[in-house]
Write a structure and sequence with these properties.
Layout lengths: L2 H9 L6 H10 L8 H10 L1 H11 L13 H25 L11 H19 L4 H13 L2 H11 L4 H10 L3 H9 L3 H11 L4 H10 L2 H5 L3 H16 E2 L2 E2 L2 H13 L4 H16 L3
Antiparallel strand pairs: 1-2
Helix pairs in contact: 1-11, 2-3, 2-5, 3-5, 4-5, 5-7, 6-7, 6-14, 6-16, 7-14, 8-11, 11-12, 12-14, 14-15, 15-16
């Protein structure tokens, strides 16, 4: 398993589903210029996509009191920015079928992790800046996609046993991934996004997440996006999902950003309570 092999495999990935491709082309003209009626029709044209969008949105950790029964209602409540993330998340999961058990998760659990990250970011940061929360929560939903690529490579290699042992013993997932392939799974996610022509800023953010040199080249708003994502992956990650310790660590980073750590903790514990109610 090498970085070069991963690059080669990403380059050979086919396009996303027809519906996802059409949606992607719609968003290229600007996320604020989306024709909502056409977006709804495109989603409804793919029965599996529509069903999964509704299934994902009705998960308890998103906090809706009443069941969302239609795609048009989902788009109206979630907004075009967050719907974009849901569509890309579903399309990439379909394209990147992988055995996530090497990270300690069954497929449904890994899917929950991604949605929890998005839900926490949206419910926390919407108290600070709603438009930014909508934009970056879509990235939070798909930022772990690189782990699917790593999982596929590991399972297909001779490193499976070694990876499991090292992963179980490591303290930092990112440092462990770097020790094996030279990059983190977030950097691999950035490569995936470029391959499928997703929102360019998403790749920029993930490339700077663990790279101080690239981080320093960003403007203040972009750096803030990186910091938001770092907070979320601290609170919710493949080794620790909303434990008291991970929430406190994340809250400390929130305080370093100049925001209320208590507000963050209140939201995080509420998301955790909603999630635990589903188990």
């Amino acid at each position: 398993m090498t970085f070069e092999k991963i690059i080669s495999d990403i380059d050979s990935l086919p396009p996303l589903s027809d519906a996802a491709y059409i949606v992607q082309s719609m968003y290229l003209s600007g996320i604020d210029n989306i024709n909502i009626l056409r977006l709804v029709k495109v989603i409804e044209s793919d029965a599996m996509l529509a069903a999964n969008i509704l299934k994902m949105i009705n998960a308890p950790y998103y906090g809706f009191q009443k069941k969302i029964a239609s795609v048009s209602q989902a788009v109206a409540l979630f907004g075009t920015k967050r719907i974009y993330g849901l569509i890309m998340h579903y399309a990439m999961q379909e394209s990147l079928k992988a055995d996530t058990s090497i990270y300690g998760f069954e497929e449904s659990q890994f899917n929950d992790l991604c949605h929890l990250q998005s839900a926490l970011l949206m419910q926390w940061y919407s108290h600070i800046e709603v438009r930014d929360a909508q934009f970056i929560s879509s990235l939070a939903l798909i930022m772990e996609s690189g782990k699917l690529v790593v999982a596929k490579e590991v399972v297909a290699s001779d490193y499976c046993g070694e990876f499991r042992k090292g992963y179980n013993e490591c303290e930092s997932i990112e440092e462990y991934e770097k020790s094996l392939i030279g990059v983190t799974s977030y950097e691999i996610s950035a490569l995936l996004f470029k391959h499928w022509n997703l929102e360019p800023l998403y790749s920029t953010i993930l490339e700077a997440l663990d790279n101080e040199e690239k981080y320093n080249l960003l403007d203040v708003k972009e750096q803030n996006y990186v910091n938001e994502i770092d907070v979320i992956r601290t609170a919710i990650n493949a080794k620790d999902i909303l434990s008291n310790i991970s929430i406190e660590k994340a809250a400390h980073k929130v305080m370093g950003m100049g925001y209320s750590d208590q507000l963050f903790k209140d939201v995080a514990y509420r998301v955790r309570e909603n999630y635990l109610d589903t188990l």
